[in-house]
Amino acid sequence: MAETVDDKVSYFQAVTGISDPDLCTEILAAHNWDLQVAVSSITANPSSPSASASTSSREQGPSAPLADAEFVAPPPPMPPAPQQQQQPGIAWKLVTLPFYVVSGGVGLVAGTFRLGAWVAGGVLSRSLSLLGLAGQAGGDRLLELPPSAAEAAEFVAEFEREFGAGRGPRFVAEGFSDALQRAQREFKLLFVYLHSPDHPDTPAFCGGCLCAEPVAAFIDENFVAWGGSIRRTEGFKMSNSLNASRFPFCAVVMASTNQRIMLLQQVEGPKSPEEMIIILQRVVEECATSLVAARIEAEERLNNQRLREEQDAAYRAALEADQAREQERLEELERREREAAEAERKRKEEEEALARAAEEAAEKEAALARRRQEKAMALGAEPDKGPGVTRVCLALFSSSFFLTTFFQLLL
């Protein structure tokens, strides 16, 4: 078995809407664990839980009021009616007992082999990476993709591998939340396709409708396309969140408030390309006004933000210019104060120098006067003319005059 028993039971519950795992297990065992046959038998039976859920969903119709579906906490599936949850009798259990034994044993053996292969692969990959022998493709990737983006990329690769590269809508290789934000940024609706690989109508719907050139071109032009397999975690969550009760399943959603999504349209069951285009065209026309209004509002908000930024930039430039002028004024004032202080210092130094010179000159003059007085007092008074007094006269000549007279006498 390619899948474990729990995977098949979970998938069967997601497709049919039956919440009782024991009942799902018995139905799958009765059909030899063939998902396609079991799902076909349930969807073809009008009294089954899946048919009742599909009928109630189709009663809403494309023109039903818009509903909100929360992505963070998907709503639980509706419980079936009491008459649909009746346990089968003892005869049914006796008939299906061999299927339980065989399928359980095979599932246990397959699970053991898958676990061993996974452990061995992990050990081998780790060993090669430590030895530097790992592939360059894995080594070149600096950041690993988040699980939701990895699942989306795997779905895109599987879809192109099965139905041809370049065919069908251009599904984004991002998680649902990222795709929803991308659609919001591009002012488009989000086209959601939930892929059920085991459903008998899936190949014909994908190859004949989604891969049709008019449908793919219309979706690429007016929507952001996101796809997910219900075998994966995010695809399974979205199938529960959108109450997908019949496959193939498509939906058109848009972002709402408080991390919620608004379900605009459900497309369940096989559709022709013409029917799909008509449905999607109607949704686009109904939401065109709101998308245009959102675009205009975003442009106005962007223009207002740009205007505020320009005003802030002009204010900052004017403020910087004022600050520069004030800084220049302060620097000029400080320069003038420094020059005035330097001139005052020089003037005081000159005044002090003149005062010291005058003081020194006065001191010298006073000292000379004292020496004259002291000498005069030491010599005493000059005697008067009389006997016993001799007057001596000294004539002082210059050396040049003396030499001239000396040479004249020699000649």
Describe the model:
- The chain is an alpha+beta fold.
- It has 13 helices and five strands.
- The protein has helices spanning 5-16, 21-30, 35-43, 49-58, 90-131, 136-140, 147-163, 176-185, 202-210, 213-222, 233-241, 273-379, 399-410; strands at 67-70, 189-195, 223-229, 249-255, 260-268.
- It has a five-stranded mixed beta sheet.
- Strand 4 and strand 5 form a beta hairpin.
- Helix 1 packs parallel to helix 3 and helix 10 runs parallel beside helix 12.
- It is rod-shaped, with a radius of gyration of 54 Å.
- Mean pLDDT is 76; it is low at 45-104 and 133-142.
Number of strands: 5
Q: Would you list the SSEs in sequence order as H and E?
A: HHHHEHHHHEHHEHEEHH
Strand content: 5-15%
Helix count, per DSSP? 13
Please compute the radius of gyration using only Cα atoms. 54 Å
Strand order of the largest sheet: 1-5-4-2-3
What number is the mean pLDDT? Answer: 76
Tell me about the biggest sheet?
5 strands, mixed
Assign the structural class, choosing from mainly alpha, mainly beta, alpha/beta, alpha+beta, or little secondary structure.
Answer: alpha+beta
Helix content: 55-70%
Shape: rod-shaped
Cα separation of the termini = 158 Å
User: Which residues form runs of ≥5 with pLDDT under 50?
Assistant: 45-104, 133-142
